[in-house]
Amino acid sequence: MVKHVNTLILGAGAAGLMCAAHAGPDTLVVDHAKSPGEKIRISGGGRCNFTNLHAGPENFLSENKHFAKSALSRYTQWDFIDLIDRHKIAWHEKTLGQLFCDHSAKDIIAMLLAEMRPSELWLQTEIGEITHDGSHFHAHLARDGKSTTVTARNLVLATGGKSIPKMGATGLAYRLAEQFGHRNTETRPALVPLTFDGPAKQQFAALSGTSVPARVSCNGTSFDEGMLFTHRGLSGPSILQISSYWREGESLSLHLRPDLNLMDNLRTRRQTSGGKALKTVLAELLPKALVQHLADAVPMHGNLADQSDNALTALTDQLTAWHVTPTSSEGYRTAEVTLGGIATDALSSKTMESQNQPGFYAIGEAVDVTGWLGGYNFQWAWSSAVAAGRAIRAA
Questions:
Q1: d(Cα 83, Cα 364) in Å, to the nearest integer?
Q2: How far apart are alpha carbons 186 and 184 in whole angstroms?
């Protein structure tokens, strides 16, 4: 069987569905999954952190830090908010500009499916060999036990990266990009918990479930958000954020309670609560289990009144510059996104079209553009998809 379409989109995730909504009616979207938008469905605790009020180029990592500017400026977070408002999807800001559905992430999926009509969607479809004959792409697909060759003038890679392989993530986009003359940058798990081995792992395991506000710094970048101790190491928003900047062998600097001036706080309490044990007072500022853990390495003897300014300075210096060296990360198994991907040097920043192969587009997570935690990666999916879709429709 042979089927002819104008545009074939590989991947029915956020970017693929959004691109289909803008690419024109003669479009086919294919995916191996049983349901569309699976990463949308599970994101944000089932409520989808669909964008961020503060989304801008500075919130993204890429070999070319300027590449994302064009797409992000031509389809902004405000454009996407307008779209969900038109579909009467209720939403709220949780923190730091992060926007979530009031009801369910499934509302976003339903909206995208409505927007992409009358384009076709084939699920549970296996993607085989893809070639180009000089004018059209030929994709060999298998569905319902039948083989179909789809010919298309345009081919859009929207299959994502390697994160969360249990949901079917593969490196398909990277292999196809190379086939059509593109370079791939190094790929790594990003927005991922960090792990430790040896004594540090055992010590942190004893603190599993303990959380504390922290400023986590690495390679000149810092994030002030919650940090969570786990049975394997460290997680929480601040750790997930910094994981995109960290590399094996590098240390992190942890500043506990950056929302407080610990030194000033302890000096004030020395006047009002000097008779209390130092550890007791610290346990009013930090989780008790964490204070007990730190007491094994940081001197915390006697009452607060017994502590000189020099002693308090030495203590707070250690609490605000605690250096730890993770061994690794939890990998793609739990990574929210993939850092790196299809290099941007041979893609148009305005249309996402290949400069090597006309009609070949790459969008979303597959491309070497990776956002911060908090809705930024969904915004890149929307923006890059619209850029490609509009270019295809206008051609």
A1: 19
A2: 7
